[in-house]
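Objective 1b. Sequence-to-structure analysis of HxlR family transcriptional regulator.
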Amino acid sequence: MESSEPACQYELLAARDALEVIQGKWRIPIVISLTYGTKRFGEIQRDIGDISPKMLSQELKALEANQLITRKLLADSMPVSVEYSLTPLGLSLKSLLVELRVWGRHFRTEMIHR
């Protein structure tokens, strides 16, 4: 039985690392918004709805620090604008998000029919 414990610990560590990056109320919705393409701050805020500008700014910085998104300054526009897009690492979340939505629909159906 001991031989499986290091494997279990490794899997738990990997899951914790992943959850640390995408945890919280806003990060997954932000990533989902950006799966539809490069967007400006206001576009992301409109997609999500009830997120404050301060919170969106904080979450975008965290996602950028974890290399899931890139921030591109559009200096040639007036006023100066910023665009956000998913990195290849951020795009790699797409299949996970699809599975999460499938599971969420299943979970909702199960709870409704109880």
